[in-house]
Amino acid sequence: MNIILLGAPGAGKGTQASKIKQRYNLLHISTGDIFRANIKKGTEIGKLAKSFMDAGKLVPDEVTCEIVRDRLTWDDVKGGYMLDGFPRNLFQAKELDKFAEIDLCLNIAVDEGLLTDRICGRRVCACGESYHVSTLNGVTTCAKCGGKLYQRADDNPETVKSRLDTYNTQTAPLIDYYMSQGKLKTVDGGTGAPDDIFAQIINILE
């Protein structure tokens, strides 16, 4: 099965992707990871993407689509995959339809007020662990490695609003796009623990 994960920043796509990968052995493909891998390997498409990133510009849709198209030719995708962070807009979605067969678009829906609270209250550690101030009870160190927790520079209300505005303008139209194809399934990502949300996903996938 080939799945697209859809959801606004802070919706919990990463958490659910990890659970889906573990239960269904689906490959998790993040566009950020693909960019970094190509840049590290020094591929031609990686060099091209890096030139835009170094200039502080967004990587053009055509370049992003080409990187994803190449990634989907690798042998490890044959057992099925999840796309996370792609497509981001209608152009990318229509291009994806030209080189991939998508079975399901899984949309994790969360109220914007809750998203803002989630992101602004997030505290992270250099080891990769993530927490929320509501559950830390004043603790400032990581339970896993003891490292000092910090707030990412872009986890502030102004930046979050900008990111949500961008999502609503560019990515949210994909909801109607995949609904018209009969491929959209939506879960409530705003209530319950991550395991409760995953239970909704299991009901859809099984």
| Helix proportion | 40-55%
> Which class of secondary structure composition applies to the elements?
alpha/beta
Task: Report strand %.
Answer: 5-15%
Oligomer: single chain
Low-confidence residue ranges: none
**How many beta strands in the DSSP annotation?**
7
The number of helices is 10
Can you summarize the main beta sheet? 5 strands, parallel
Mean pLDDT value:
93
User: Biggest sheet, strands in spatial order?
Assistant: 2-3-1-4-7
Cα distance spanning the termini: 11 Å
Q: What Rg is obtained from the alpha carbons, in whole angstroms?
A: 18 Å
Could you explain how this protein is built, in words?
With 206 residues, the protein is α/β, with parallel strands linked by helices. The strands form two sheets. A five-stranded parallel sheet has the order 2-3-1-4-7, sandwiched between helices. Strands 5-6 form a two-stranded antiparallel sheet. It is globular. The chain starts with a strand and ends with a helix. The model has no long low-confidence stretch (mean pLDDT 93).
Fill in the keyword field for this structure.
7 strands; single chain; globular; 5-stranded parallel β-sheet; 206 residues; 10 helices; two-stranded antiparallel ribbon; alpha/beta
